[in-house]
Recover the amino acids of this structure.
């Protein structure tokens, strides 16, 4: 008979793994676009502004993923998932 007095706590590894994967994909996308930009030798003002927007958008995505991961880890440590299962 299984021991039901010790409930299994949710894993913290999964949210961190997913966050690392998303950050890696964003780095790959933005990095490949920057690499293509530099390989083509585009250095006019419009192209530099466009690349700055890509970098800012990538940074915003990475910041949002980190913030959401931290929030999720706080939820897991606070036991909110177990409380929601009761209702």
């Amino acid at each position: 008979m299984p021991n039901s007095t010790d409930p299994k706590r949710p894993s913290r590894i999964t949210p961190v793994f997913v966050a690392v994967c998303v950050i890696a994909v964003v780095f790959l996308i933005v990095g490949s676009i920057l690499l293509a930009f530099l390989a083509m030798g585009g250095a006019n003002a419009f192209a530099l502004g466009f690349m700055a927007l890509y970098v800012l958008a990538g940074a915003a995505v990475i910041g949002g993923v980190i913030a959401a991961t931290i929030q999720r880890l706080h939820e897991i440590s606070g036991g909110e998932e177990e409380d929601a299962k009761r209702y």
User: Anything to note?
Assistant: The radius of gyration is 20 Å. The CA atoms of residues 5 and 82 lie 14 Å apart.
